[in-house]
Specification:
It comes from Trichocoleus desertorum GB2-A4. This is ParA family protein. Pfam families: AAA_31. InterPro entries: AAA_dom, DNA_Partitioning_ATPase, P-loop_NTPase. By secondary structure, the chain is of the alpha/beta class. 42% of the residues lie in helices and 15% in strands. The chain contains twelve helices and seven strands. Strands 3-4-2-5-1-6-7 form a seven-stranded mixed β-sheet, with helices on both faces. A hairpin with a 2-residue loop joins strand 3 and strand 4. Helix 1 packs across helix 12.
Length: 251
Amino acid sequence: MSQIIAVFNQAGGVGKSTLTMNLGYQLAQRKKQKVLLIDMDPQGSLTLFMGLEPSELKATIYESIMEDRPLEPHTLHGMDLVPANINLSGAELELVMADARDYRLQEALKPLRDRYDYILIDCPPSLGLLSYISLVAATHILVPIQTQYKAFCGTELLFKTIARVKKRTNPQLQVAGFVPTMYASQNSQDKRALQAITEQMAPVAKVFDPIVRATALADAAEDHLPLALYNAKHPALEILNQIAKHLEKLK
């Protein structure tokens, strides 16, 4: 059975989609593991980064969770992707009255779990139902957190959401770790935020080395490529490989 890892933070702009794509690629390259990416963000950033045009898609995660259609992954860069587009924004309202709404994504993934070693879910930047059903379906949570004071302060809401999911619907859910992102070592505020993240989060789960703020990550996404294919010597790849190794040890 695959590990299902929700890349989750209710804040936007922390690098969830970028982390999902690049971590998925690293996992796929290690031991030729089979990786499935799920785009649960109506903005479709992961879908776009991977090279698909969201507005042109007819089969997305929306049809699977709201209309019970089988998932239809696209194979890109050695990974499979279930894409999303703006139709998914309607699911937030439709799920309110849907039968067994909490388990819609979990049920959609069941037929595929034996086919993949890892399923990575790119969660939307909110605490709404799309994020909730992603956490219900997950075995683990990986939290990207920007090294800024405001982002650090927002973790209290994140922990409350995790606690609610564990209490009500998914008691086996575990935190796989925290990934400090967009780190600028020359910035004193970033240094203080990184220290606070490390001190406060380390008792909960592993805090990885920070991924530095780099234009190469954005440039690679613009070219619809994982960073390793865009710049094979970029220092961020060492951190991504470190995270991949840690995920391989999860149970």
